Amino acid sequence: MTEHIVREICSPMGVEIACQFTQEGEDLGYLVLDSTFEGRASGGLRMLLDVSLEEIRLLARSMTLKYAFLGLPQGGAKAGLRFDPEAPLEERRAALRRFAQAAAPLLRARVYIPHADMGTSREDIHFLLKSLGLRPNSHDVHRSDSGHYTAHSVLACALQAAAHLGFDIRGSLVAIEGFGHVGGALAGLFYEQGAKVVAISTSAGAIYAPQGLDIPFLLRLRGAYGSASILHYGAAERIALPDLLTLPVDILSPCARHHSIHLGNVDRIQARFICPGANNPITPEAERALSARGVLVIPDFVSNCGGVLGGTLAFAGCSQATIEAFIRREIGHRLLGILQEAKGQSLPLRDLAIARALETRQRLCQETQRHRTWQRLLSCALALYRRGWIPSALTSPFAPRYLKGKWA
């Protein structure tokens, strides 16, 4: 028997809905709606043995800020399934089926729209929906890996941050926590830019090579061995996972779990700036301590927004090359504006980025209220597009311009 515990918590976004699903006295998973837009919210479903309600709450808030920063009419949500992502396929599917049944009312009503996240794939999400008799949208099937586009926005922000601090990314030293979908793609992009990726980590441990790692070879090893790839790489020193964060590097990019940088290790951070691929990798107290030391920290919902942005443009039918160029150009440009404004007004970068994101969200809400007829027409057109009745050749040329218009 599955039991549901639902909490409503007042927040700056309205009322947060936090669902805790239990089965036979044990937590099955969690679902948090941090905010909704026109009654809907979207965010990833992650599968991890130790995922917690507090982690999912933080991640849901990050999704709200990410959608707001991008000017997308969507609420922020996140879900977590407490299960081993390395379990055999049939066991994983049984766990997904149980979670789907627990969250069925929100999934059937499309109040919560799930996406792949840490430990899950697009195939997992499609299985989850189909187990409830729900049909995944035809355009969603063709979406590219969001981790790839997240890596592109992290790189765009890293290039802009390096220029802001007055150094060239070519030849710079980079440490990447996590070598999964985001971290692996990011390592490849840094390598292509001429940076030296000197350290990476997986759940199996971390490796360090001051002269730089052979990233193309490591990516091939990852394809063959997964998280154990670092065990098959001989030309590097094995180090403890926490030690990766405190290496003498120019750029540190946390691409793993939340709060890996905290008051217990923040004083040992040596990077010139931190550009996260993960959500909430730094506790608020640690971020304040880094700021006081003059270490630049790019807000996570800015640097890793490429997954959401890329998925939106891919949904509209834009090509991968168009999406990559748009992310590199526009996200870098938006970060530059925030960096300049924060410096000119002597404001904390994160506080300013949050303020601008919420201003965009408020403007979007007001526009929706004023133009109800237009919004209804747009919703109808979107429904037809989801069914494949409107060709992407008509939507792809307008999607980038539409998004830029929301940022003005």
What is the helix fraction of residues, given as a range? Answer: 40-55%
Number of helices: 15
N-to-C SSE series? EEEEHEHHEHHEHEEHEEEHEHHHHHHH
Which class best fits the helix and strand makeup? alpha/beta
What percent of residues are in strands?
Answer: 15-25%
Low-pLDDT parts are 8-12
Query: How would you sum up the global shape?
Result: globular
CATH class of the largest domain: Alpha Beta
Number of strands: 13
Structure, explained:
With 408 residues, this protein is of the alpha/beta class. The chain has 3 domains: 2-141, Rossmann fold; 147-355, 3-Layer(aba) Sandwich (Rossmann fold); 357-407, no CATH class. Helices cover 46% and strands 19% of the residues. The chain contains 15 helices and 13 strands. A 7-stranded mixed beta sheet has the order 10-9-8-7-11-12-13, with helices on both faces. The protein has a 6-stranded mixed beta sheet with strand order 1-2-3-5-4-6. A hairpin with a 2-residue loop joins strand 2 (14-23) and strand 3 (26-33). The protein is globular and about 55 Å long. Residues 8-12 have low confidence and may be disordered.
